[in-house]
Specification:
About 25% of the residues lie in helices and about 40% in strands. By secondary structure, the protein is an alpha+beta fold.
Length: about 200
């Protein structure tokens, strides 16, 4: 916005100084001459109009400011697309790093998992946090035969920074041998799951 305002002020000063053409228009004329020859800037011609009687048509080729010549498109794409394509390899990718089951007492276990963001971009990004369009990361425990004494069945993690690790932990009562599944759910940074064996009473 600031750059646009500076350009507008510059063009206003140029016209006030007696030059009918702005620097942008002069550059466009040079560009049209080099790329389109006579077709880039058409001479003004009078024509008969059914509503306005007499009118004039001419000037810059339509879309001259926004659309490059067809023979330049491949060259421009080669330069412009390299960075966006490379950027996709930096996107957040969240997976389980490791897990631990520690027996506290008969039928009582401390379950701990570590998750990592392997990407070079935070989840969510700063814009995702601001507009709240990206849902938090969820860790969900699935098992009907356990009792969660500490922690939640669905644990919400609002943010995990790039190339970082976060930990989540639960205190679980399992009276019998039971396999616990933990799902890692994200909106657009992948998903993962692990299964942990709780031993029950011995």
């Amino acid at each position: 916005m600031a750059e646009m305002m500076r350009q507008m002020q510059k063009q206003k000063k140029e016209k006030q100084s007696g030059n009918d053409l702005s620097s942008v228009e002069i550059s466009l004329i040079k560009y049209a001459d080099s790329e389109y020859k006579e077709r880039g800037l058409l001479n003004w011609q009078k024509l008969s109009h059914p509503q306005f009687s007499e009118a004039e048509v001419g000037g810059f080729l339509p879309y001259l400011k926004t659309t490059p010549p067809a023979n330049k498109i491949k060259e421009i794409l080669k330069d412009q697309l390299e960075w966006p394509i490379r950027l996709t390899s930096f996107l957040p990718e969240i997976k389980f790093l490791k897990s631990e089951v520690k027996k506290i007492s008969p039928a009582l276990y401390r379950v701990t998992v570590w998750i990592e963001n392997r990407g070079r971009i935070d989840y969510p990004t700063a814009m995702g946090e601001r507009n709240e369009r990206i849902k938090p990361l969820i860790l969900e425990i699935k098992s009907k035969k356990i009792k969660i004494l500490e922690g939640k069945q669905r644990t919400k993690i609002n943010k995990i920074e790039a190339l970082s690790v976060k930990k989540a932990s639960w205190l679980i009562q399992a009276d019998k041998k039971e396999t616990v599944k933990i799902d890692l759910i994200t909106m657009n940074a992948g998903s993962d799951s692990i299964r942990l064996q709780l031993g029950g009473e011995e």
